[in-house]
């Protein structure tokens, strides 16, 4: 892949530098794309360059390096294979969390595909966490298992936000080639991603049997 890496490995760090030439996070994800993710956003997407469909959601958590514990901290439990990720509402926002683009994006994806059991169309989540300055750690390939509207206090402000529940698939690595092939696939909206994209190189062969959490059936689409 030239100056780009071959894959994201679960638990490994990748440089998230301001210098684009040394960046291994958004530079690798955005490599062949017209646009791509905004590195400053906690919730992003990779769209199909031909059809405009969402192929992946990108979640970036900055809570890993914080010594302070707040009610809105993201929780990533690798042992149980679950994560709870907060949307992008902030103190000072209005009462409608959908005014934030990340929340609106996730709710649309969840209600259109996940909640309707359209797993063949659902965009999987690539989960990253900032555990120290200048780096991100890849936490895994995930499926959304729930979306909950929550309220919490931030000082004197009441923040209305979404908590996004994730199941972390039991995959040791995700190939960059697979990600980039997906965003250039020519399939129609109704065609399964399992048909449109060969998913065998996505996951390590030894780790394609289950989800790290309690929802093993949801791995069927991605572990073929």
Please give the number of β-strands: 10
Question: At the first level of CATH, what is the class?
Answer: Mainly Beta
- Topology as H/E string? EEHEEEEHEEEEHH
> Which stretches are low in confidence, meaning pLDDT under 50 for 5 or more residues running?
188-224
Radius of gyration: 17 Å
Which architecture would the CATH scheme give at its second level?
Answer: Roll
Shape: globular
Strand fraction: 25-35%
Number of domains: 1
The chain-level mean pLDDT equals: 79
CATH topology: PUA domain-like
- How many H/I helices? 4
How does this structure look, described?
The protein has helices at residues 26-30, 101-114, 176-182, 193-196, and strands at 7-9, 13-15, 43-47, 54-61, 75-77, 82-86, 125-132, 135-154, 157-168, 173-175. The protein has a single domain (7-219), classed as Roll (PUA domain-like). The strands form two sheets. Strands 2, 3, 4, 5, 6, 7, 8 and 9 form an eight-stranded mixed β-sheet that branches. The protein has a two-stranded antiparallel sheet with strand order 1-10. The protein is of the alpha+beta class and 224 residues long. The protein is built from four helices and ten strands, in the order E-E-H-E-E-E-E-H-E-E-E-E-H-H.
List keywords for this structure.
single chain; 224 residues; alpha+beta; PUA domain-like; eight-stranded mixed sheet; two-stranded antiparallel sheet; 10 strands; 13% helix; globular; disordered C terminus
């Amino acid at each position: 892949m030239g100056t780009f890496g071959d894959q994201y490995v679960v638990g490994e760090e990748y440089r998230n530098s301001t210098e684009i030439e040394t960046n291994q996070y958004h530079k690798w994800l955005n490599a062949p794309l017209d646009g791509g993710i905004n590195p400053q956003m906690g919730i992003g997407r990779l769209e199909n360059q031909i059809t405009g469909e969402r192929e992946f959601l990108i979640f970036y958590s900055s809570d890993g390096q914080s010594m302070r514990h707040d009610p809105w901290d993201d929780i990533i439990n690798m042992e149980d294979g679950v994560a709870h990720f907060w949307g992008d509402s902030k103190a000072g926002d209005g009462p409608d969390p959908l005014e934030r683009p990340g929340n609106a994006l996730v709710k649309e994806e969840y209600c259109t595909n996940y909640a309707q059991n359209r797993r063949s169309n659902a965009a999987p989540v690539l989960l990253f966490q900032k555990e120290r300055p200048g780096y991100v750690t890849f936490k895994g390939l995930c499926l959304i298992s729930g979306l909950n509207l929550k309220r919490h206090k931030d000082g004197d402000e009441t923040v209305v936000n979404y908590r996004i529940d994730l199941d972390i698939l039991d995959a040791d690595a995700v190939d960059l080639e697979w990600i980039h092939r997906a965003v250039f696939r020519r399939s129609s909206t109704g065609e399964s991603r399992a048909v449109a994209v060969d998913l065998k190189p996505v996951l390590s062969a030894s780790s394609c049997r289950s989800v790290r959490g309690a929802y093993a059936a949801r791995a069927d689409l991605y572990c073929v």
